[in-house]
Structures are given as structure tokens and as C-alpha cells.
Write a structure and sequence with these properties.
311 residues, mainly beta, 2 domains, 5-stranded mixed beta sheet, 5-stranded antiparallel beta sheet, 1 helix, 9% helix
Length: 311
């Protein structure tokens, strides 16, 4: 074989090997379909406390590092794993291999004594340049939040499941734990509330307003044709009048003047001495017992006239 032929063969072989290398590199680049990363946030606890995680990720062929169990302290980031995508991103097609329709994209935090997992939030960015495999950069807390339909969060089990991971998407999930000082799985009891004791105020007993009554009327030998016996007082509800022990009138309300009055026509009573009795009854709430008041007067003149009374 001539030297020229040998050189041609060598050039051909070198070109074939170069093409094969480029193909393999292209395949490796094509296999980097998405990235997943975890960040730990420790609220209120010792920032050096370590939290254990178990990833269950279907990785791209040849991806490095492998998604094995890992631990993070407050503020630490996990490696960014190249993982299998589940769908192409908008505007692209035929990039996400159909051989990974059931790719596992879960990460679980193990329970940590003294802490409660309170939140898992995942954010994302897209790759900027498909040809050069350039990402838009690691997602930050200001990056868009992964849509609810694309991620499932179970705080009780500490698991995040990326239901949808687009081709060329970089997802970072922030795990937030709150220090409670309680055993794992035990939630803090609600704060005790101290009942507010109102100052005791003694209610004074209702002041009793007692009843009272006085009787006014004729005395001696009146000269008028009509005389009146009047009861005045407080808390009165009933007055019964008697003349010479004979009941002549009962009143259950006072007269317009406010008194309780019995009028007696002198021409209708006998000549001589007479007595007027007034039985006064009071409201029950007054606590005053009924009382009888009396007065005496005289009709002067003939002594044989029969008494008659008006009511």
C-alpha cells in the first residue's frame, strides 16, 4: 500500500472517530433533559443541624453525580442532577425520549427530631441556548413558581413529586423546616390562653322603697255641707273606707289630685259623733304591711236623725 493511501486511510479513520465522538457528545448533550436541585431552609433551629434526603430520580444516561442519599444543613444546596424529562417544553418537539414515560422524579426528606416540615416550594428556569446547552441560570427565590398541576407536595411524608419536568427545565425546590423542639412527627400544642377575669362587681340589692300613708279629714263639728277624708302617701295600691265600721267605698287608684278621698255629705249622717276608718294597702315590693288609719268628727244639732253615708 502506498504512503498516500495509508495517509488517506488514516485521515478517514480520524474523521470517523471524530464524527463518532461528536455523535456521542451530541447524544450526551441531548440526554441532559432537565435538572433537579434541593435547598434547605432552617427556621429557628441550629443552622448546623443536618437533614437527610432520599432522591428517587431517573437520571439521564451518563449523568453525574448519581442521585444518591444526601444531607443538607441550613442554606445548603444539593447537587444539580441531570434527570429524565417527562415532556417537551413549549415550542419544542421530539426532544424528550419516549423511553422514559414513567420517569421517577421524587425527593423525600427524612423526619428530623425537633423540626416540622412547613413548606416545599419549587421554582424553575429554562435553557437559553439549545445548541450550546446553556441554561438560564439556577432558579432563585424570585424565579417563577412551578405550576400546581406540575408538582405534588406531601408535607406529611416530606415528599415532592415533579409530575411534569420539561425538556431543558431547571427546577430547584426549597424545603423549609421550623424548629419546635418536639419529637419528630409531633406538632406543637396550641398556645394556652389565660381566661380574662373581669373585676367582680357586687350588685347592690334593689333599694326597697317603703310605703307610707296619712289620713286627713274633718275634726270637731264641721260647718260645711260636705266633708272629705283623704289618704295621702306613697306606694299605695288600695284604700277601703269605713264609716262607723260600715264599709262605704273602695278605691284602687287615686283621685286626680293624687289623694285617695272619701266625700261625706253632712246632711246624710246622724247628729252626733262618727268615726272614719281607712284601710290602706301597699305594693308588695314596698315591704310595707297594710295599715288602718282613723279620724273622728261630730255633726252638731238634732240628735235623733238616722245616719246615711255616701260613697
Amino acid at each position: 500500500m502506498s504512503i498516500r493511501a495509508t495517509r488517506a486511510t488514516r485521515v478517514f479513520v480520524a474523521a470517523a472517530l471524530a464524527w463518532l465522538g461528536l455523535a456521542l457528545c451530541a447524544q450526551a448533550a441531548h440526554a441532559t433533559h432537565g435538572r433537579v436541585q434541593i435547598v434547605k431552609i432552617n427556621q429557628g433551629g441550629n443552622q448546623s443541624d443536618s437533614f437527610a434526603f432520599h432522591p428517587a430520580l431517573t437520571q439521564s444516561p451518563g449523568a453525574s453525580p448519581a442521585a444518591t442519599d444526601f444531607s443538607l444543613t441550613g442554606g445548603q444546596y444539593s447537587p444539580a442532577w441531570d434527570t429524565a424529562c417527562t415532556t417537551d417544553r413549549p415550542g419544542h418537539s421530539d426532544h424528550c425520549p419516549i423511553e422514559w414515560p414513567g420517569a421517577s422524579l421524587k425527593v423525600t426528606e427524612q423526619p428530623k427530631p425537633g423540626y416540622t416540615l412547613t413548606d416545599i416550594t419549587c421554582r424553575y428556569t429554562w435553557r437559553l441556548d439549545d445548541e450550546n446547552n446553556l441554561y438560564a441560570g439556577q432558579p432563585t427565590t424570585s424565579s417563577p413558581v412551578k405550576p400546581a398541576g406540575e408538582v405534588s407536595v406531601d408535607l406529611a411524608s416530606g415528599t415532592v413529586n415533579l409530575n411534569v419536568l420539561h425538556y431543558d427545565e431547571w427546577v430547584v425546590c426549597w424545603y423549609t423546616n421550623q424548629w419546635t423542639g418536639l419529637p419528630a412527627g409531633q406538632t406543637p400544642a396550641p398556645p394556652k390562653t389565660t381566661p380574662v377575669t373581669q373585676p367582680s362587681s357586687e350588685v347592690s340589692p334593689a333599694k326597697v322603697r317603703p310605703g307610707s300613708a296619712t289620713l286627713h279629714g274633718p275634726k270637731g263639728c264641721p260647718t260645711s255641707n260636705v266633708v272629705a277624708a283623704t289618704v295621702n302617701g306613697k306606694r299605695i295600691v288600695k284604700v277601703t273606707f269605713y264609716v262607723d265600721n260600715k264599709k262605704v267605698k273602695t278605691l284602687t287608684k287615686p283621685n286626680k289630685s293624687g289623694g285617695w278621698t272619701l266625700s261625706v255629705a253632712m246632711r246624710k249622717v246622724a247628729y252626733g259623733s262618727h268615726r272614719v276608718h281607712a284601710k290602706v294597702e301597699f305594693a308588695k315590693s314596698s315591704g310595707t304591711a297594710a295599715k288602718t288609719l282613723q279620724l273622728a268628727f261630730t255633726r252638731c244639732g238634732a240628735s235623733n236623725a238616722r245616719p246615711q253615708f255616701t260613697g
